[in-house]
């Protein structure tokens, strides 16, 4: 495209809340045949909440919740915030005392798995099955069943182990963005295939994908794995767009032909992307591709 055409399209994009960094993204976007969406914070709101709890011991819910929230208190992960928020609500309802006196040591983040810490001298693990298995915490048939049921409801199951025994679990639900289904089906009508990629487990990922009309899912994928998926598709000659919001999406956003960051996402993602969706509205994925198609066709 001519510099003038690029300038006009970039200006039009900016007025629509679609920030296009440079002409190259604009030149490539019209060729996109595949859009890869991150799950958490991209297809979903990224604001998970605790929607169900389960106890596997005679321990009280308040006690499990208090210890889990203390372990999660130093983490920025959306799941951590959901647990801390839930504990706060329980506390307001039942008003257990001296919460400020909880002492937390050796806090550790386990990426894609959960967190651990010593809370009041007890080893507290909060996370998924992978975290429990890597710490040699046994998973009973009852726990296994609860995890499976939770995941099939499109929820993420967060297990809480104290001193090596799973005492309780939280089902965390992150609502799907209202426009997600509509955008995926419109992309299909444009001849564009949508794929989901996520660090979350297969069953939860499948359930969310089904709700938004995506057939193809790559679950339990770490940041490097997300970028790897894109390179594999590119090796088949496909032009790939990636839409993401997290630090864990930045490698993939950089690897894609067109990286699109959710405006409400992390700075790292915004910096790695070619396009920023300022309104955080998934429909603007279509706006960006459309702008490119119109710009290119006007020139030829
Ligand atoms: P995504 O790619 O969907 O953003 P992450 O890679 O951040 O997901 O996390 C993958 C999974 O690891 C989560 O679904 C959850 O099961 C577990 N997990 C990660 N961080 C935490 C945490 N702070 N507390 C509990 N579980 C966690
Ligand atoms: Mg995300």
Provide an overview of this structure.
The chain is α/β, with parallel strands linked by helices and 300 residues long. The protein contains 13 helices and 13 strands. It has helices spanning 3-15, 23-29, 39-43, 61-72, 78-94, 129-134, 141-152, 180-189, 202-212, 223-235, 250-255, 267-272, 283-299, and strands at 18-20, 34-38, 49-55, 104-110, 114-119, 122-127, 156-162, 165-173, 193-197, 216-218, 240-244, 258-262, 275-277. The chain has a 7-stranded mixed β-sheet, sandwiched between helices. The protein has a 6-stranded antiparallel β-sheet with strand order 3-8-7-6-5-4. Helix 7 (141-152) runs parallel beside helix 9. Bound molecules: adenosine-5'-diphosphate and magnesium ion. Magnesium ion binds at residues 38, 40-42, 244-246, 249. This is P-type Cu(+) transporter. It comes from Apostasia shenzhenica. It is found in: Membrane. Belongs to the cation transport ATPase (P-type) (TC 3.A.3) family. Type IB subfamily.
Which helices and strands occur, and which strands form pairs?
Elements: H1 3-15, E1 18-20, H2 23-29, E2 34-38, H3 39-43, E3 49-55, H4 61-72, H5 78-94, E4 104-110, E5 114-119, E6 122-127, H6 129-134, H7 141-152, E7 156-162, E8 165-173, H8 180-189, E9 193-197, H9 202-212, E10 216-218, H10 223-235, E11 240-244, H11 250-255, E12 258-262, H12 267-272, E13 275-277, H13 283-299
Bound molecules: adenosine-5'-diphosphate (ADP) and magnesium ion.
Organism: Apostasia shenzhenica
Protein name: P-type Cu(+) transporter
Subcellular location: Membrane
